[in-house]
Structures are given as C-alpha cells and as structure tokens.
Design brief:
Number of domains: 1
Number of helices: 16
Structural class: alpha+beta
Radius of gyration: 22 Å
Shape: globular
Distance between the termini: 27 Å
Helix content: 25-40%
Strand content: 15-25%
Length: 457
C-alpha cells in the first residue's frame, strides 16, 4: 500500500490556485524556457517529464535525513577501516570483487577527507519515516547537479512563484555550486586549478548510449566549472599519466592536474584488476592522492553501495527525531547467505532483487512474471554480489505537467527522493517521478519518467 508524499499542503494549494488561474502564461513561459536552454546546448525533458510545480518538502526533515545519513556513512567508513588489511574480512562484509583490496588502496581511500565529501542517496520519504534504498557514493552526481541548475533557472522567473513572492534562492538549494566549492577546496592552491573530470573509457562509451540530455548535462557542468575559474577537462584514464616525479599530468600537453574527479561510477576499473595492482599501468588511480593531487572521490568508495546496506542495518544506523520521524535503512540481505532462500519465491510481491556494487540488474517481484522472477532469484542465490531488498511501495502525489506540452494535467505519480549531501549538510534534492504504478524502477526511465526539484519549506 502506498502513502502520500508529505508535502506542505497549504503551500501546494496556494500554488495550484494560481497555476490554474494562469495556465496560458505558465505554458508560454515553459515553452520559452525550453527553447532558451536548447539554444544553450542543453536538452531538457518536456511534457510529462517536466513538472510546473516544485516538490514542497519539510526543511527540518531534509536536514535530519542529511545528518542521519552522514552518521551512517561515518559508521560505514569506520567499519571499512577496521576490516581493511585483515585478509578476507572486508570481502566477507562487502563482497564486491575478490581482487578489490589488491587493486584499490582501501585504507588510503577511507582515511581520505574526500570519502565523505558528497553523496546523492536515493530513498522514499513518508510522513513518519525516510527509507534509504541506495547510497550513491557520488561519482555520478555531476549529471543530476547540472540538471538541477536548469530547474533553478526555471523556478527563478516562474509566473506563479513571482506572484507568491517566494525567495527561490533560499528555498531551492542548488547542488552544483556546492560541488564546485568542494572541488576548489580539494584542488591544489593555485589561482585557476586544472581539474580532470575523468570517466573510464568504457563508461564514456556507455554514457554515449544514454539520452542526449545526459551528455548535455555533463558538458554544461564542465562549463560551469570553467565559469567558476576552474580549468576543467573531460577525460579518460588514457588522457592522464604520471611524470618522473610521480605527479599527475595531462598527456596531451603535460599540464599538471590539480584535482582528479571521477564523474562516473568507476566500477569498470575492476574489470582488469591487474592494471590497478601495484606496478600496474593504472595503479595510481586506486589511491586517494596522486603525488600532490587529491582524488575526489577515491575509488575505495565503490564499497559504499547498496551492497553495504546489510552492514548498515547490522551497525544499527536507524535514527529518530524528537517527534518520532525516523531515518531507516531498507531491509536488505544477500540471497546467497539467506537461511531460507525459497522465501523470495513464496513472496515475490515482498522483494526486489538488485545487482550490487558493479552494474545494474534490478527486478521487482510485484512487476515480474513468474518465469522472470524465478530466473532473477536463481541468479541472485548463485552470486555473492546480488542483494534482496524488502519492497517498499513508493510515495504517491499528483504532479502538474503539460502532458503534450499544451494541456495541464495533475498526473497521479510515484516519487523517489534523491538528495544532494555535502559533508553531512543538505544541499538540495530532486524528485524522480513516473505515472502511478507498482514496481517502478526509476533508473530504467519508465514511461512518463520525469525529474523535478525540491523546495525545502
């Protein structure tokens, strides 16, 4: 059973009254906005993908979620520190890859000040609790940060918001300036730092298969780094190397790299672990610091994945506000270790099977036919890198959109909350939404998928 997204309903009613009174003006404004951003080389979602009202969520809840999540990640960081270096212990807790500790300098990474610098976790916000379903370490944050900048521009001159007199800069926190600030903090102290925005070459190929708006956002974010005074370049592992002093530089012109930022998840580096081991051609990329250059964020953080959720539950990371609102970790376990693996087949509506750590392969029992679900459970029982997570029906709300870019409709939808968190502080949020249905997987871009942003009120 689904429950409503806990918005500030009085503000929603105020907004919707004015929206219905000025539909034509808002439609014309929305069309002009999309054309303006298209002229800037950025593809935006339209129709049901673009909401004309932000999600109006309680600021106190969002700040609490940020603090509770940071505490959970600190507990995870300490657990990894304790286990790293004790042969077999880390693999037992977090079964990512049998060669992980040989390929990645785990202790260097988890002791780095960059390990906790930024995250973009996913979860489900209800009236009485927030359920964390994905950690999202942060190496893919740049795309959603960029898209949120477009949304900020839209809200800044929105006809309804202007009539309401809302302070957009206060209510709508913008995560991209926060990310740029983090980058400047970690870059070497030079006037215009050179920043390598790096993705594995195979992951670049994958990104090129995504909708055009994804690559547009990467390019837009890079340009925003440049406008902020950081000389950012998009590159792959083939475009950077070490000089004779062990300092990182760009291969094309020998210019020093003042900060290395991974902008995609980075699991592909483990496809050839021999290159990442000591003496390997890419061994330097497994560290938290390369010469004088910080890595943001170090690849040791690949362990901070949905595969770490069982450990977070074991560490007791649930927290509660004075009024009873709770931060919870989604009930998650490894099917290969389950004492009763048949229960996933007996109760398909109660489970989701997910690939952990490396890649995506998600199956929601309530949305699968019998054959597909049996196959998913069989694979999960055989592999150490799959998790089973208790199914949670996403919160529901009505989302106002121009369904065909012309007609306003309030579409019953499900919403997943994606927060941007910086050093434990709330730095903005987006809401991924799709037309009301059970078993939605937002990362698979379901029909009528959209992304909007949050006003913390």
């Amino acid at each position: 059973m689904s429950h409503p997204l806990p918005q500030n309903w009085e503000l929603v009613r105020q907004f919707d009254r004015l929206l219905l009174a000025h539909v034509s003006e808002v439609r014309d404004y929305t069309h002009a906005f999309h054309r303006r951003w298209e002229a800037r080389g950025v593809t935006t979602m339209r129709g049901t993908g673009w909401t004309v009202r932000p999600f109006l969520l309680p600021a106190a809840r969002l700040d609490f979620i940020a603090a509770a999540f940071h505490a959970a990640m600190t507990a995870l960081q300490n657990a990894i520190r304790h286990a790293a270096g004790r042969r077999g212990e880390l693999a037992r807790l977090l079964p990512f890859h049998e060669d992980f500790e040989d390929a990645i300098d785990v202790l260097d990474g988890v002791w780095s000040p960059g390990f906790l610098s930024h995250f973009r976790p996913d979860g489900f916000l209800f009236e009485d609790r927030f359920v964390l379903s994905e950690i999202n370490y942060g190496n893919g944050i740049i795309v959603s940060c960029g898209y949120t900048e477009a949304a900020a521009d839209y809200w800044r001159h929105h006809p309804v918001i202007l009539r309401l007199g809302w302070d957009v800069e206060r209510l709508h926190r913008r995560p991209l300036p926060w990310l740029i600030h983090i980058a400047r903090r970690f870059a070497r102290p030079v006037r215009r730092p050179r920043v390598a925005l790096l993705a594995h070459s195979e992951e670049w190929k994958t990104m090129k298969g995504y909708p055009q708006r994804v690559l547009d956002q990467v390019n837009f974010a890079r340009d925003e780094f440049i406008r902020a005074g950081l000389r950012a370049r998009l590159c792959t592992e083939q475009d950077v190397g070490l000089d004779r002093q062990g300092q990182l530089h760009f291969e094309a012109d020998g210019a020093p790299v003042d900060l290395l930022m991974f902008i995609t998840v980075g699991t592909t580096f483990l496809d050839r672990p021999e290159l990442m081991r000591a003496g390997g051609a890419l061994a330097h990329l497994g560290r938290a610091r390369i010469g004088d250059t910080w890595v943001l964020k170090p690849l040791a953080g690949l362990l901070a994945d949905k595969g770490a959720l069982p450990l977070l539950n074991a560490l007791g990371c649930t927290q509660q506000m004075a009024d009873g609102f709770r931060f919870e970790i989604a009930a998650t376990e490894f099917p290969c270790r389950s004492p009763d693996p048949e229960r996933y087949l007996r109760d398909p509506d109660g489970w989701v099977v997910k690939r952990a750590f490396d890649g995506k392969d998600t199956h929601v029992g309530v949305a699968c036919d019998d054959a597909r679900w049996r196959d998913a459970v069989h694979r999960a029982r055989q592999a150490p890198d799959y998790v089973a997570q208790r199914y949670v029906s996403l919160p529901r709300t009505d989302v106002p959109v121009f369904v065909d870019e012309q007609h306003l409709e309030f579409v019953p939808s499900r919403v997943e909350l994606s927060s941007f968190l910086y050093d434990g502080a709330f730095g903005g949020a987006g809401g991924r939404h799709a037309r009301d249905a059970e078993g939605l997987i937002m990362t698979d871009f379901p029909d009528d998928y959209g992304y909007s942003t949050v006003f913390s009120v």
